[in-house]
Amino acid sequence: MLRPEHLYYVPQHFGQYDRQTIAQALGISHKLSALHAILSGDATEKHFNTLNDDWNVEERAQTSLDSWGLDGIPLSRPMEGLSGGEKTRIFLAGMELHNPTAILLDEPTNYLDADGRERLYNLIRRTSATVLVISHDRTLLNQLPAICELSSQGLTYYSGNYDFYKTEGPATESPYPTTGREAESPAPCTQSGTRSRRTEGQTECAGRKTPLKGIPAS
Question: Is there a contact between 100 and 128 (Cβ–Cβ < 8 Å)?
Fold first, then answer.
């Protein structure tokens, strides 16, 4: 069973984090406060409990940011005023910082440049975590091993990437109205097995075409 601390979420929208510092957005501000208190001579037990022997948390966080091209940005900097690409990179850096068991990525390449996208593709290919991706980035979808399609008939599993889904998926004509890029590509799901796409009337994912029993359509 996964516990909350084993899950990590990279959002598509970041407005709710504008009043936070980078450290707060990454969920490590409490550890940094405890670390700095201890280094300042406050040996209160609660600080040691909060830090939980993570003595190099500040160094690891800065290294993770540096690896995503954010070197020189302090953890104390407010999120407000950063670009969408910078905010995305901060949360992607958090994946390496927290090393979670499962990761949810919501349209992670929307604000990334070519270099950032390639870094993400490489991370997806090498991570051992289960990765659930929602995206219209076909290159990203092709990095993943499976897609699930949720329609009025239920959930269908395709054991292949986006190219496989295009070949083995349902007929192009959908009973649901779709417009623009929503109709073009399903959204990714996981490193170990599923992706999903959201349209106006349905959600799609990719893999070997197999109906999954017990999962009726909503």
Answer: no
